[in-house]
Amino acid sequence: PHKGPLNGRRIVVTAGPTFEPLDPVRGMTNRSSGRQGYAIAEALARKGADVTLISGPVALPAPGGVRRIDVETADQMLEASLNALPCDVFVAVAAVADWRPKQAATEKQKKGPDAELSVTFVKNPDILETVSKHLDFRPKLVIGFAAETSELEAYARAKLASKGCDAILANDVSDDVFGSAKNQVSLADLDGFTAIPGTTKADVANFVARYIHKRLG
Ligand code: C5P
C-alpha cells in the first residue's frame, strides 16, 4: 500500500461491463473496456486508499495495490458491493446491464426453423441506487457515472436526485470514447456543474481522486 492523503480510507469502485447469460455460450453485455474505472482505482490507490475494485469481465490487469473481485452478472456485482460495505466512498463506474434474460438455459440453445426469437428480460438491481439508499451502511460519499449523448447536465441532475448519490460524473459519449484513452467528463454535485480539465481517462481519474480527498476533508 502507498503512503498518501487517503491512508485509512476504504473505497469501493465498480468497473467494466456486466455479462448476463442467455445460455452457457451466449449472453448480453454492455460496451465498456473498464479503463475509466481501473484508472480511478489506480489513482485512489496511489493516494494511499484501501481500494476494492469490483470488476465485470475486462481484459485489464488489476492496478498495483488494489484488491480486485471478479464478477460476471449485475446480481453478483450487487452482492460483492454489499459485502464490501461499510466503506468511506463508493464509486460506481461499471456499465451494468439494465436487463437480464429472465431465464438462463443450462444447455446451449439450438437453432430451430424459426426466423424470430423472443427473449423475456427482467430488470437488474440498480447497484448505485441500492448503495446510495442503504439504511445501515450508506457511505459518506457516493459517486456515479452517467454516459449520455446529449443533455448532459439535465440528465446528470436527474440521476443525482433519483439515485440519491452525492455526485455524478457526466460522460459525453457522443464522440469516440469506448475503449480509447480519451474521455470528456463533467461533474455534477450540489455545488454545480463543472467540466473536468483534461481529456484522458487518467486526467479524469486524477480529478476524481482529488475531488474525493477534498470532499472527505
Ligand atoms: O441509470 P444509468 O445506467 O444511466 O446510471 C449509471 C450509473 O448507475 C453508473 O454509475 C452505473 O455504474 C450505475 N448503475 C448501477 N447499477 C445499475 C445501473 C447503473 O450501479 N443496474
Could you outline the blueprint of secondary structure elements for this entry?
Layout: E1 10-15, E2 19-23, E3 26-29, H1 35-46, E4 50-55, E5 67-70, H2 74-83, E6 89-92, E7 99-101, E8 121-123, H3 127-132, E9 141-148, H4 152-163, E10 167-172, E11 185-189, E12 192-195, H5 201-216
Parallel strand pairs: 1-4, 1-6, 4-5, 6-9, 9-10
Antiparallel strand pairs: 2-3, 7-8, 10-11, 11-12
Helix pairs in contact: 1-5
The protein binds cytidine-5'-monophosphate.
Cytidine-5'-monophosphate is lined by residues 14, 74, 92-94, 96, 98, 124, 126-128, 144-146, 159.
Q: Give the ordered list of helices and strands.
A: EEEHEEHEEEHEHEEEH
Average pLDDT figure: 94
Q: List how many beta strands DSSP finds.
A: 12
Strand order of the main beta sheet, please?
A: 5-4-1-6-9-10-11-12
| Fraction in beta strands | 25-35%
State the helical fraction. Answer: 25-40%
Query: How is the main sheet built?
Result: 8 strands, mixed
Radius of gyration: 18 Å
| Category by helix and strand content | alpha/beta
EC number: 4.1.1.36, 6.3.2.5
Keywords: Decarboxylase, Flavoprotein, FMN, Ligase, Lyase, Magnesium, Metal-binding, Multifunctional enzyme
Protein name: Coenzyme A biosynthesis bifunctional protein CoaBC
Pathway: Cofactor biosynthesis; coenzyme A biosynthesis; CoA from (R)-pantothenate: step 2/5; Cofactor biosynthesis; coenzyme A biosynthesis; CoA from (R)-pantothenate: step 3/5
